[in-house]
């Protein structure tokens, strides 16, 4: 499926999601050893004595991108994980309510098994899974959890589909059925 008429020419979908972590080795170990992603190549360091970093990446001109690593996590977008060093670098994680707040959601087939797995590995689960029984998300369960460095992630599951599917033949992308 390509972009709708009038959209970005040739757009096929999301290639990767990039995010910055305080320690690349810790993040890669978490995503590989706990989540089950596959690590691919690493690049870096990158820095510049002119304004290249500001012009191209919108960071402090003297910022140093120590390293970056690409990972694949089953079906869906790849991750590009960065480790930066910069003057006035903010090190606290944004909350979902902050501008720029975000979370990464991982689809799982069995919510209870996934939660138990993460708990057995010492991962902080934020509350209990929520199950939606009405509305467009009916049939979906979800729960947030935190990475070791405090980034919010989510487990989501809707093996029987979502409520909105009763009213349309259109579908959101689904990692279990990537060709739909």
What's the helix and strand layout?
Blueprint: E1 16-20, H1 24-35, E2 38-43, H2 52-57, E3 64-72, E4 78-85, E5 104-107, H3 111-120, E6 124-131, E7 141-146, E8 152-157
Parallel strand pairs: 1-4, 5-8
Antiparallel strand pairs: 2-3, 3-4, 6-7, 7-8
Structure description:
By secondary structure, this protein is an alpha/beta fold. The protein is built from 3 helices and 8 strands; from the N terminus they run E-H-E-H-E-E-E-H-E-E-E. A hairpin with a 5-residue loop joins strand 3 (64-72) and strand 4 (78-85). This is VOC family protein.
Radius of gyration: 19 Å
Give the amount of beta strand, in percent.
Answer: 25-35%
By DSSP (H or I, 4+ residues per run), the number of helices equals 3
Number of DSSP strand runs: 8
Task: Detail the poorly predicted runs.
Answer: none
**Portion of residues in helices?**
10-25%
| Amino- and carboxy-terminal Cα gap | 9 Å
Spell the H/E element sequence. EHEHEEEHEEE
Largest sheet: 4 strands, mixed
